[in-house]
Amino acid sequence: MNKIFVYGTLKSTRIQKELFGKELKMYKAVLEDYSVYEAQDGYYFIKEKVGSNIVGYVIELDDKSLEICDAFEWCPIVYQRKSISVKVQNKEVPTDVYIRVADINDYKEVLDFKTFSKFDEEFVINTEIKKFKEIEHPEFYR
Description:
Low-confidence stretches: none
Largest sheet: 6 strands, mixed
Shape: globular
Radius of gyration: 15 Å
CATH topology: Hypothetical upf0131 protein ytfp
Helix content: 10-25%
Structural class: alpha+beta
Number of helices: 3
CATH architecture: Roll
Distance between the termini: 23 Å
Strand order of the largest sheet: 4-5-1-3-2-6
Mean pLDDT: 91
Order of helices and strands: EHEEHEEEH
CATH superfamily: Gamma-glutamyl cyclotransferase-like
Number of domains: 1
Strand content: 35-45%
């Protein structure tokens, strides 16, 4: 099984069902010494910041689901997967996380990051995932 630390859209079980056709196994995790930022283009990303923590989840994906996940995250064009360790119940767990590829010059730290998106689940499902499934990557859903 492949493991990815998620802190945003992919932690929603409803979005997981739409994207992967099932809920993924997931468990709460903490990524230490990182913070969430919003780029000028509206996309969230994370980068190192000593003393900050991101609470999210580790999701487990089979190989097909990982392919879908990489495509949904525009990996390796916008994001790339990076090996990292997170804490799960105070134990270090190796996993991957999506890191923004380009250096971002115009961004702001999101100090009260509680939600996965500026958009609600309905928008993500009915707009972004619909476009992903029907136009960008229908090959995953045949």
